[in-house]
Protein backbone atom coordinates (compact mmCIF):
# COMPACT_ATOMS: atom_id res chain seq x y z
CA UNK A 1 0.00 0.00 0.00
CA UNK A 2 1.46 3.25 -1.01
CA UNK A 3 0.09 6.72 -0.97
CA UNK A 4 -0.36 8.05 -4.48
CA UNK A 5 2.39 10.53 -5.24
CA UNK A 6 1.39 14.09 -5.90
CA UNK A 7 2.25 15.49 -9.30
CA UNK A 8 3.54 19.01 -9.63
CA UNK A 9 3.56 21.17 -12.74
CA UNK A 10 6.77 23.13 -12.54
CA UNK A 11 7.58 25.80 -15.14
CA UNK A 12 6.37 23.91 -18.15
CA UNK A 13 7.05 20.50 -16.49
CA UNK A 14 10.81 21.15 -16.48
CA UNK A 15 12.27 19.02 -13.65
CA UNK A 16 15.77 18.51 -12.32
CA UNK A 17 16.26 15.53 -9.93
CA UNK A 18 16.28 16.52 -6.26
CA UNK A 19 15.89 20.22 -7.17
CA UNK A 20 12.85 22.24 -8.19
CA UNK A 21 13.69 24.98 -10.73
CA UNK A 22 12.47 28.40 -9.77
CA UNK A 23 9.94 30.20 -11.99
CA UNK A 24 9.91 33.83 -12.94
CA UNK A 25 7.85 36.31 -10.96
CA UNK A 26 5.59 36.66 -13.99
CA UNK A 27 4.45 33.05 -13.55
CA UNK A 28 2.92 34.02 -10.18
CA UNK A 29 3.25 30.44 -8.88
CA UNK A 30 4.16 29.36 -5.38
CA UNK A 31 6.98 26.91 -4.74
CA UNK A 32 5.27 23.52 -4.30
CA UNK A 33 5.32 21.77 -0.94
CA UNK A 34 7.59 18.74 -0.48
CA UNK A 35 6.12 15.45 -1.60
CA UNK A 36 4.51 13.52 1.24
CA UNK A 37 6.36 10.50 2.60
CA UNK A 38 5.07 7.11 1.53
CA UNK A 39 2.67 5.60 4.02
CA UNK A 40 3.40 2.15 5.39
CA UNK A 41 1.42 -0.79 6.64
CA UNK A 42 1.23 -1.17 10.41
CA UNK A 43 1.22 -4.87 11.34
CA UNK A 44 -0.05 -5.92 14.75
CA UNK A 45 0.95 -9.29 16.23
CA UNK A 46 -0.88 -11.32 18.87
CA UNK A 47 0.20 -14.38 20.81
CA UNK A 48 -2.24 -17.21 21.50
CA UNK A 49 -2.40 -18.89 24.89
CA UNK A 50 -0.93 -22.37 25.12
CA UNK A 51 -1.70 -23.93 28.50
CA UNK A 52 -1.53 -20.88 30.77
CA UNK A 53 -2.92 -17.35 30.26
CA UNK A 54 -0.24 -15.11 28.80
CA UNK A 55 2.26 -17.89 28.00
CA UNK A 56 2.00 -17.15 24.25
CA UNK A 57 2.78 -20.76 23.39
CA UNK A 58 -0.23 -21.32 21.13
CA UNK A 59 1.22 -19.57 18.09
CA UNK A 60 1.24 -16.08 16.57
CA UNK A 61 -1.28 -14.24 14.39
CA UNK A 62 -0.86 -10.94 12.53
CA UNK A 63 -3.10 -8.28 11.00
CA UNK A 64 -2.16 -5.09 9.13
CA UNK A 65 -3.84 -1.71 8.85
CA UNK A 66 -3.01 1.67 7.37
CA UNK A 67 -1.14 4.20 9.45
CA UNK A 68 -4.31 6.31 9.62
CA UNK A 69 -6.33 3.38 10.95
CA UNK A 70 -3.62 2.49 13.48
CA UNK A 71 -3.92 6.02 14.88
CA UNK A 72 -7.74 6.07 14.86
CA UNK A 73 -9.30 5.31 18.29
CA UNK A 74 -12.60 4.54 16.54
CA UNK A 75 -10.99 1.67 14.63
CA UNK A 76 -11.17 -1.83 16.17
CA UNK A 77 -8.63 -4.55 15.35
CA UNK A 78 -9.33 -8.18 16.25
CA UNK A 79 -6.19 -10.05 15.24
CA UNK A 80 -7.52 -13.29 16.79
CA UNK A 81 -10.71 -13.26 14.68
CA UNK A 82 -9.41 -11.75 11.46
CA UNK A 83 -5.65 -12.30 11.48
CA UNK A 84 -3.23 -14.59 9.68
CA UNK A 85 -1.32 -17.36 11.47
CA UNK A 86 2.41 -17.25 10.73
CA UNK A 87 4.50 -20.40 10.88
CA UNK A 88 5.61 -21.24 14.39
CA UNK A 89 4.86 -23.96 16.90
CA UNK A 90 5.22 -21.42 19.70
CA UNK A 91 5.63 -17.64 19.62
CA UNK A 92 7.06 -16.61 16.25
CA UNK A 93 10.07 -14.31 16.16
CA UNK A 94 9.00 -11.67 13.66
CA UNK A 95 10.88 -8.88 11.91
CA UNK A 96 9.56 -6.39 9.37
CA UNK A 97 11.08 -4.58 6.43
CA UNK A 98 11.79 -0.90 6.87
CA UNK A 99 8.87 0.05 4.62
CA UNK A 100 6.46 -2.30 6.40
CA UNK A 101 5.59 -4.20 3.22
CA UNK A 102 7.35 -7.46 4.15
CA UNK A 103 7.38 -9.65 7.25
CA UNK A 104 10.27 -12.00 8.00
CA UNK A 105 9.86 -14.98 10.30
CA UNK A 106 11.88 -17.93 11.55
CA UNK A 107 9.66 -20.63 13.05
CA UNK A 108 10.44 -21.39 16.68
CA UNK A 109 10.50 -25.09 17.73
CA UNK A 110 8.38 -27.90 16.30
CA UNK A 111 8.67 -29.78 13.02
CA UNK A 112 9.36 -26.59 11.06
CA UNK A 113 11.57 -24.95 13.71
CA UNK A 114 14.39 -23.00 12.06
CA UNK A 115 12.48 -22.51 8.80
CA UNK A 116 12.69 -18.99 7.41
CA UNK A 117 9.61 -17.49 5.74
CA UNK A 118 8.98 -14.19 4.01
CA UNK A 119 5.48 -12.71 3.69
CA UNK A 120 4.16 -9.90 1.51
CA UNK A 121 1.85 -7.63 3.53
CA UNK A 122 -1.36 -7.00 1.60
CA UNK A 123 -3.53 -5.40 4.27
CA UNK A 124 -5.96 -6.84 6.79
CA UNK A 125 -5.45 -10.54 7.33
CA UNK A 126 -3.96 -11.05 3.87
CA UNK A 127 -0.29 -12.07 3.90
CA UNK A 128 1.21 -13.87 0.93
CA UNK A 129 4.01 -16.29 1.72
CA UNK A 130 6.64 -15.86 -0.94
CA UNK A 131 8.00 -18.96 -2.65
CA UNK A 132 11.35 -18.78 -0.91
CA UNK A 133 12.48 -20.92 1.99
CA UNK A 134 15.64 -21.83 3.82
CA UNK A 135 16.04 -23.88 7.00
CA UNK A 136 18.84 -23.04 9.41
CA UNK A 137 18.05 -25.67 12.05
CA UNK A 138 21.04 -27.87 11.25
CA UNK A 139 23.31 -24.95 12.13
CA UNK A 140 21.41 -22.95 14.77
CA UNK A 141 18.89 -25.53 16.11
CA UNK A 142 15.10 -25.58 15.76
CA UNK A 143 14.91 -22.74 18.30
CA UNK A 144 17.20 -20.10 16.82
CA UNK A 145 17.37 -16.58 18.18
CA UNK A 146 17.71 -13.96 15.51
CA UNK A 147 17.30 -10.32 14.58
CA UNK A 148 17.43 -8.29 11.41
CA UNK A 149 20.37 -5.94 11.17
CA UNK A 150 19.72 -2.26 10.49
CA UNK A 151 21.39 -2.52 7.08
CA UNK A 152 18.53 -1.86 4.68
CA UNK A 153 16.82 -5.24 5.06
CA UNK A 154 19.85 -7.10 3.73
CA UNK A 155 20.85 -9.40 6.58
CA UNK A 156 19.50 -11.40 9.47
CA UNK A 157 21.80 -12.85 12.11
CA UNK A 158 20.86 -16.03 14.00
CA UNK A 159 22.81 -17.20 17.05
CA UNK A 160 22.80 -20.22 19.30
CA UNK A 161 24.77 -21.99 22.05
CA UNK A 162 24.48 -25.78 22.29
CA UNK A 163 25.90 -28.75 24.18
CA UNK A 164 27.36 -27.01 27.22
CA UNK A 165 29.68 -29.48 28.93
CA UNK A 166 32.79 -29.69 31.08
CA UNK A 167 36.21 -29.95 29.47
CA UNK A 168 36.71 -33.40 31.07
CA UNK A 169 34.58 -36.48 30.63
CA UNK A 170 33.00 -36.15 34.06
CA UNK A 171 32.98 -33.72 36.92
CA UNK A 172 34.05 -34.51 40.44
CA UNK A 173 35.97 -33.29 43.42
CA UNK A 174 39.28 -35.07 43.01
CA UNK A 175 42.32 -33.28 41.58
CA UNK A 176 42.63 -35.93 38.87
CA UNK A 177 39.50 -34.62 37.19
CA UNK A 178 41.38 -31.43 36.29
CA UNK A 179 38.20 -29.41 35.74
CA UNK A 180 38.87 -26.21 33.79
CA UNK A 181 35.59 -24.99 32.28
CA UNK A 182 32.05 -25.49 31.07
CA UNK A 183 31.62 -24.38 27.46
CA UNK A 184 29.10 -24.83 24.69
CA UNK A 185 29.47 -24.58 20.94
CA UNK A 186 28.34 -21.17 19.69
CA UNK A 187 26.91 -20.62 16.22
CA UNK A 188 26.74 -17.25 14.49
CA UNK A 189 24.92 -17.41 11.14
CA UNK A 190 24.27 -14.72 8.54
CA UNK A 191 21.10 -15.00 6.45
CA UNK A 192 20.72 -13.05 3.21
CA UNK A 193 17.14 -11.80 3.47
CA UNK A 194 16.84 -10.80 -0.17
CA UNK A 195 18.29 -13.85 -1.91
CA UNK A 196 17.09 -16.10 0.94
CA UNK A 197 20.23 -18.09 1.52
CA UNK A 198 22.77 -18.67 4.25
CA UNK A 199 25.60 -16.29 3.40
CA UNK A 200 27.95 -17.56 6.08
CA UNK A 201 28.24 -19.15 9.49
CA UNK A 202 30.89 -19.89 12.09
CA UNK A 203 30.97 -22.24 15.05
CA UNK A 204 33.35 -22.04 17.99
CA UNK A 205 33.70 -22.18 21.74
CA UNK A 206 33.86 -18.78 23.42
CA UNK A 207 36.05 -18.82 26.55
CA UNK A 208 35.74 -16.56 29.56
CA UNK A 209 38.75 -15.83 31.77
CA UNK A 210 40.36 -18.86 33.37
CA UNK A 211 39.34 -17.62 36.82
CA UNK A 212 35.68 -17.18 35.80
CA UNK A 213 35.54 -20.59 34.17
CA UNK A 214 37.08 -22.37 37.15
CA UNK A 215 34.13 -21.09 39.20
CA UNK A 216 31.72 -22.65 36.69
CA UNK A 217 30.59 -19.56 34.77
CA UNK A 218 29.65 -20.05 31.11
CA UNK A 219 27.77 -18.36 28.28
CA UNK A 220 24.36 -20.02 28.25
CA UNK A 221 22.71 -18.06 25.42
CA UNK A 222 23.57 -15.53 22.72
CA UNK A 223 21.00 -13.13 21.27
CA UNK A 224 20.22 -9.68 19.87
CA UNK A 225 23.24 -8.95 17.62
CA UNK A 226 23.79 -5.40 16.40
CA UNK A 227 26.12 -3.96 13.77
CA UNK A 228 28.51 -1.19 14.86
CA UNK A 229 28.87 2.17 13.11
CA UNK A 230 31.94 1.07 11.11
CA UNK A 231 29.96 -2.01 10.01
CA UNK A 232 32.97 -4.22 10.71
CA UNK A 233 31.89 -5.75 14.04
CA UNK A 234 28.83 -7.49 15.44
CA UNK A 235 28.08 -7.00 19.11
CA UNK A 236 26.13 -9.98 20.49
CA UNK A 237 24.36 -10.04 23.84
CA UNK A 238 24.89 -12.85 26.35
CA UNK A 239 22.88 -14.70 28.97
CA UNK A 240 25.22 -16.09 31.60
CA UNK A 241 24.95 -19.30 33.61
CA UNK A 242 26.87 -20.87 36.47
CA UNK A 243 27.24 -24.60 37.10
CA UNK A 244 28.68 -26.39 40.06
CA UNK A 245 32.17 -27.58 39.00
CA UNK A 246 31.86 -30.68 41.17
CA UNK A 247 28.42 -31.87 40.04
CA UNK A 248 27.75 -30.08 36.76
CA UNK A 249 24.35 -28.94 38.04
CA UNK A 250 23.09 -25.47 37.19
CA UNK A 251 23.03 -23.05 40.13
CA UNK A 252 19.95 -20.87 40.32
CA UNK A 253 21.54 -18.34 42.66
CA UNK A 254 25.08 -17.07 42.21
CA UNK A 255 27.19 -13.94 42.38
CA UNK A 256 26.95 -12.39 38.94
CA UNK A 257 29.90 -11.29 36.88
CA UNK A 258 29.94 -7.95 35.10
CA UNK A 259 27.69 -7.85 32.01
CA UNK A 260 29.38 -9.41 29.00
CA UNK A 261 29.00 -9.10 25.25
CA UNK A 262 30.67 -11.01 22.42
CA UNK A 263 32.33 -9.11 19.57
CA UNK A 264 32.94 -10.85 16.22
CA UNK A 265 34.36 -9.55 12.97
CA UNK A 266 31.82 -8.70 10.28
CA UNK A 267 31.07 -10.01 7.72
CA UNK A 268 33.50 -12.89 8.35
CA UNK A 269 31.90 -13.72 11.77
CA UNK A 270 35.37 -14.71 13.00
CA UNK A 271 37.53 -13.88 16.01
CA UNK A 272 35.05 -13.90 18.92
CA UNK A 273 36.09 -11.68 21.80
CA UNK A 274 34.36 -11.16 25.16
CA UNK A 275 34.08 -7.66 26.63
CA UNK A 276 32.93 -6.99 30.21
CA UNK A 277 31.11 -4.09 31.83
CA UNK A 278 31.89 -3.04 35.38
CA UNK A 279 28.65 -0.99 35.50
CA UNK A 280 26.03 -3.66 34.76
CA UNK A 281 25.79 -7.07 36.42
CA UNK A 282 23.04 -8.66 34.37
CA UNK A 283 22.48 -10.40 31.07
CA UNK A 284 22.02 -8.35 27.90
CA UNK A 285 20.55 -10.93 25.52
CA UNK A 286 17.03 -9.54 25.78
CA UNK A 287 14.31 -12.10 25.25
CA UNK A 288 12.40 -11.86 21.97
CA UNK A 289 13.30 -8.44 20.66
CA UNK A 290 16.16 -6.13 19.86
CA UNK A 291 18.24 -5.32 22.93
CA UNK A 292 21.16 -3.25 21.57
CA UNK A 293 20.99 -0.23 19.29
CA UNK A 294 23.40 1.90 17.31
CA UNK A 295 22.52 5.45 18.35
CA UNK A 296 22.80 8.77 16.56
CA UNK A 297 26.08 9.49 18.38
CA UNK A 298 27.73 6.40 16.86
CA UNK A 299 27.82 4.42 20.09
CA UNK A 300 25.86 1.28 20.95
CA UNK A 301 23.45 1.22 23.89
CA UNK A 302 22.40 -2.03 25.50
CA UNK A 303 19.86 -2.92 28.21
CA UNK A 304 20.45 -5.46 30.98
CA UNK A 305 18.12 -8.07 32.44
CA UNK A 306 18.39 -10.15 35.62
CA UNK A 307 20.74 -7.48 36.89
CA UNK A 308 21.51 -7.80 40.61
CA UNK A 309 21.46 -4.00 40.85
CA UNK A 310 18.40 -3.43 38.64
CA UNK A 311 18.48 -2.93 34.87
CA UNK A 312 21.05 -0.56 33.40
CA UNK A 313 21.54 0.96 29.99
CA UNK A 314 25.15 0.24 29.07
CA UNK A 315 27.26 2.07 26.50
CA UNK A 316 29.69 0.44 24.05
CA UNK A 317 31.93 2.98 22.34
CA UNK A 318 33.23 3.08 18.78
CA UNK A 319 36.33 1.16 19.87
CA UNK A 320 33.94 -1.72 20.63
CA UNK A 321 34.60 -1.59 24.37
CA UNK A 322 32.29 -0.84 27.29
CA UNK A 323 32.43 2.80 28.40
CA UNK A 324 32.40 2.26 32.16
CA UNK A 325 32.25 6.00 32.78
CA UNK A 326 28.65 5.93 31.46
CA UNK A 327 26.35 5.00 34.34
CA UNK A 328 22.59 4.89 33.66
CA UNK A 329 20.69 2.99 36.36
CA UNK A 330 16.99 2.68 35.61
CA UNK A 331 16.29 2.03 39.30
CA UNK A 332 17.80 5.38 40.16
CA UNK A 333 16.25 7.22 37.20
CA UNK A 334 12.71 5.89 37.81
CA UNK A 335 12.91 5.93 41.59
CA UNK A 336 11.91 2.26 41.98
CA UNK A 337 13.67 -1.03 42.76
CA UNK A 338 14.60 -4.07 40.68
CA UNK A 339 13.76 -2.69 37.23
CA UNK A 340 13.66 -5.38 34.55
CA UNK A 341 13.61 -4.33 30.88
CA UNK A 342 11.31 -6.63 28.87
CA UNK A 343 11.76 -4.78 25.59
CA UNK A 344 13.04 -1.40 24.47
CA UNK A 345 13.66 0.56 21.28
CA UNK A 346 15.89 3.44 20.30
CA UNK A 347 13.79 6.17 18.66
CA UNK A 348 16.50 8.63 17.56
CA UNK A 349 18.43 11.66 18.82
CA UNK A 350 19.16 10.04 22.17
CA UNK A 351 15.54 9.14 22.97
CA UNK A 352 14.34 5.58 23.60
CA UNK A 353 11.27 3.84 24.99
CA UNK A 354 11.39 0.88 27.38
CA UNK A 355 8.78 -1.63 28.52
CA UNK A 356 9.68 -2.70 32.03
CA UNK A 357 8.61 -4.16 35.37
CA UNK A 358 9.88 -3.38 38.87
CA UNK A 359 9.83 -4.67 42.43
CA UNK A 360 9.56 -8.30 41.34
CA UNK A 361 6.09 -8.10 39.79
CA UNK A 362 5.01 -8.92 36.22
CA UNK A 363 3.02 -5.70 35.75
CA UNK A 364 4.38 -3.77 32.82
CA UNK A 365 5.04 -0.06 32.42
CA UNK A 366 6.39 2.18 29.65
CA UNK A 367 9.21 4.69 30.17
CA UNK A 368 10.70 7.42 28.02
CA UNK A 369 14.50 7.35 28.25
CA UNK A 370 16.91 10.17 27.48
CA UNK A 371 20.23 8.43 26.90
CA UNK A 372 22.19 11.68 26.88
CA UNK A 373 20.76 13.13 30.09
CA UNK A 374 20.48 9.62 31.64
CA UNK A 375 16.90 10.26 32.76
CA UNK A 376 13.78 8.11 32.59
CA UNK A 377 10.12 9.07 32.97
CA UNK A 378 7.13 6.75 33.23
CA UNK A 379 4.72 7.39 30.35
CA UNK A 380 1.18 8.32 31.42
CA UNK A 381 -0.94 5.37 30.21
CA UNK A 382 -3.90 3.39 31.62
CA UNK A 383 -1.92 0.69 33.43
CA UNK A 384 -3.44 -2.60 34.58
CA UNK A 385 -2.22 -5.32 36.93
CA UNK A 386 -2.51 -7.84 34.06
CA UNK A 387 -0.39 -5.80 31.64
CA UNK A 388 2.54 -8.14 30.95
CA UNK A 389 5.22 -7.26 28.37
CA UNK A 390 7.27 -10.40 29.08
CA UNK A 391 6.97 -11.72 25.51
CA UNK A 392 6.80 -8.37 23.76
CA UNK A 393 8.71 -8.16 20.48
CA UNK A 394 8.00 -5.13 18.36
CA UNK A 395 8.02 -1.42 19.14
CA UNK A 396 7.66 0.40 15.82
CA UNK A 397 9.48 3.66 15.17
CA UNK A 398 8.22 5.44 12.06
CA UNK A 399 9.58 8.94 11.61
CA UNK A 400 8.96 10.82 14.84
CA UNK A 401 6.24 8.41 15.96
CA UNK A 402 6.58 5.42 18.27
CA UNK A 403 3.83 2.77 18.13
CA UNK A 404 3.24 0.44 21.10
CA UNK A 405 0.49 -2.15 21.64
CA UNK A 406 -0.78 -1.99 25.21
CA UNK A 407 -3.13 -4.86 26.15
CA UNK A 408 -3.40 -6.64 29.49
CA UNK A 409 -3.60 -10.43 29.18
CA UNK A 410 -7.15 -11.38 28.17
CA UNK A 411 -8.37 -7.77 28.10
CA UNK A 412 -8.90 -5.23 25.34
CA UNK A 413 -6.39 -2.44 24.92
CA UNK A 414 -5.15 0.06 22.37
CA UNK A 415 -2.32 1.09 20.15
CA UNK A 416 -0.61 4.16 21.62
CA UNK A 417 1.36 6.55 19.47
CA UNK A 418 4.05 8.63 21.17
CA UNK A 419 5.86 11.57 19.61
CA UNK A 420 9.53 10.92 20.30
CA UNK A 421 10.42 14.61 20.32
CA UNK A 422 7.67 15.96 22.56
CA UNK A 423 6.65 12.82 24.44
CA UNK A 424 2.98 13.53 23.63
CA UNK A 425 0.81 10.39 23.79
CA UNK A 426 -2.16 9.69 21.50
CA UNK A 427 -4.59 6.79 21.87
CA UNK A 428 -4.91 4.82 18.65
CA UNK A 429 -6.94 1.86 17.46
CA UNK A 430 -8.69 -0.47 19.87
CA UNK A 431 -7.13 -3.94 20.14
CA UNK A 432 -9.78 -6.57 20.77
CA UNK A 433 -8.49 -9.40 22.95
CA UNK A 434 -9.54 -12.92 23.93
CA UNK A 435 -9.14 -14.86 27.16
CA UNK A 436 -5.52 -15.81 27.83
CA UNK A 437 -4.12 -13.94 24.83
CA UNK A 438 -2.12 -10.73 24.51
CA UNK A 439 -0.69 -8.50 21.81
CA UNK A 440 3.07 -8.74 21.51
CA UNK A 441 4.15 -6.14 19.02
CA UNK A 442 3.72 -3.70 16.18
CA UNK A 443 5.85 -3.95 13.04
Automatic annotation (TrEMBL):
<protein>
    <recommendedName>
        <fullName>DUF4374 domain-containing protein</fullName>
    </recommendedName>
</protein>
<keyword id="KW-0732">Signal</keyword>
<feature type="signal peptide">
    <location>
        <begin position="1"/>
        <end position="22"/>
    </location>
</feature>
Amino acid sequence: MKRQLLKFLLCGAFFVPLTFMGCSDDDNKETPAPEPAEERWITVAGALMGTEPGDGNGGTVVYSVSTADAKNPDKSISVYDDGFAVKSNRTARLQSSEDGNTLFNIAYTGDNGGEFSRYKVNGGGSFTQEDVTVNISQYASTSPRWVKLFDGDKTGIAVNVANIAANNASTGTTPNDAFKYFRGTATVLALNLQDVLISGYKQYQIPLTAEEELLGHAIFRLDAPVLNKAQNKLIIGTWMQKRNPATGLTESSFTRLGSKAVIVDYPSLENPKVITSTVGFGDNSGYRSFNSFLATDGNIYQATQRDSKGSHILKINQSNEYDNSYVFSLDAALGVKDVYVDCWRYAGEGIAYALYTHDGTNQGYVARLDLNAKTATKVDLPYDADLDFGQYQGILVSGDEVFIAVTPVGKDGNIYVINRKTGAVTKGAKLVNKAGNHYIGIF
